[in-house]
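Narrative of activities, Objective 1.

The group set out to show that a structural description can be obtained from nothing but a protein's sequence at a throughput compatible with the screening campaign. Below is one input-output pair from the validation batch, recorded exactly as produced.
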Amino acid sequence: MQRDKDTDVKARDGNQTLARGLRVMLAIADSGRGLSVQQVGDLLGVHRSIAYRIMQTLADFGLATRNRAGLYVPGARMATLAGAYLPALRDAAEPVMQQLANKLQSTVLLFVEQHREAQAVSIIEPTNASYHISFQPGMKTPLDRGASGYSLLAARPPTPDEPPAVTLARQTGYARSHGEVRPGAFAVSAWIPTDETPTRATLSIVTYTEEIADKAGVEIRRAADKIGRLLDRAYLEAG
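Output recorded for this entry:
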């Protein structure tokens, strides 16, 4: 199994066991189908017995569980952790995302900037469409490829070496791409204007229909602005 370069971080003195557990948590969350004890051992470069003890510890805390195929998958407690991440942002964004998903009959995703990637923290599907694109929670895209990454870069000050799509996004208020992350799919994204989140966030729609993508820019810019206002108001009222 190939190691994830972003999670293959050298453990500081005294926290090797914690680092191993965190790497495994991320790996099983990203795997889609789960990991066997042998795969965990290969990932960490340790014997099966050590890998088994790590998985048992995660299972004891509800962070992993073993399915009928004998693979370890995320435990129920992982959902608690996911729900605890940026709750104010998700609370403000998700109702707006549902309205946008139904209006454009397309999947809407909320991304945040994480290291050198855009990572989805919420995915809303339309309730009135016979077909739409589905995504796995936690999906990631590079910042230098695809509308979501371009949008997050456009929220920063300009740089001389930025991709042309980022410069254009800053001018139009939204980024657009075609087939850069998923073959054949159009993506349109607009950053959320707020200083009330610890990381930049962006709203994206993904569709195979060019006609929808053509009209999505104004709609998603309006939705992102609305989320920004809701966040600012919520923090102001919280005082």
